[in-house]
Design goal:
This is DNA-directed RNA polymerase subunit. GO terms for molecular function: single-stranded DNA binding; single-stranded RNA binding. The structure is a single chain. It is built from one helix and 14 strands. The longest helix has 15 residues. The strands form three sheets. Strands 1, 2, 3, 4 and 5 form a five-stranded antiparallel β-sheet that branches. The protein folds into two domains: 81 residues, Dna Ligase, domain 1 (2-Layer Sandwich); 88 residues, Nucleic acid-binding proteins (OB fold (Dihydrolipoamide Acetyltransferase, E2P)). It has 176 residues and is mainly beta.
Length: 176
Amino acid sequence: MVFLEIKMQEDVVVPFRKLTFAGLPPREVILNLLKQIYGRKASEDHGYYIAVTSQNTIFELQINEVTGDVFFPVYFNCTTVKPCIGEILIGTVTTILESGIFLNSGPIKDIYLSKIMMGGYENSFTDEPMFIKVKGLSYMKKGTKVRFRVFNKKWIERFKKINVTATILGDYLGPL
């Protein structure tokens, strides 16, 4: 995964009741900033937000005259992770379907590995659902670690997530 260190600016809204004549403690601003980032999860440009690494500047209190909200413009650094097409990752099988499997890799959930992109694996729904290699002894069942290549990715605005499709066609890819 590609980890990025980015600089961001966010307007942190603070409840009016938390304000005092001495101002607002920076701790309260940082907590509200973390809540806003946590609620966002991901963006098309930056990928998945992992952590706020440092706070650069908290500017003076401002008031939105239209809504009456009190906010502080905050500049900070943030670590993000963004999958790239062609990148090789390791994921854990979470769900097995007839048409393929779903994997999780770090903050990226529901990575789809289609049966077509498995090359030589067949369904086996006997006692435990799994995909078994026709010529060989390898298999993929729930909990198996799989090395895969990112085949495609697409930003889904409605769910604020990146849909990733995978392949294990190629050398040194497949279950570990």
